[in-house]
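Please annotate the following for my students:
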Amino acid sequence: MDKKSSENKKASPFSANDTIDTLANETKGLFEDLTGWMELKVQYILLDYQEQMTKKAKGVAFEVGALAIVGLGFLFGLVALALGVGSWLNHPAWGFLAVMMLLIIVAVVVRAVGKRVSASGKSGRSVQDIDISETKPKLPGPRIPEQASTQNGKG
């Protein structure tokens, strides 16, 4: 019997150790492939995030540039207005003083309107005042079946 069992072992193409080693190698290969895929996925996400941030930064830069040009235009307009009012009042300093007073009045009005708008808010609370427990959904309580006597009108 010893010879037959040794012949059977030689006749089979794979032994138990070979199958386990092959399975271990395949599992190791799959794990390495999965690890590589996950690393590539993380790199892709980082590159995508970086690309989105670059686009947003470029957009903000263009907006800031446009706002600076509008601000300069507004400043030149105010200087022109001051010089025009100054020539009407026969002294440039009076024109700048008049434009300054006009800007102060506009600032006071805008501040007063801003306070009224913020005071007329629905809740009148800031974000820091919000309790997190208020945001949790309230689930209905358990339903208690009515007793048969109340359903029949008795009791």
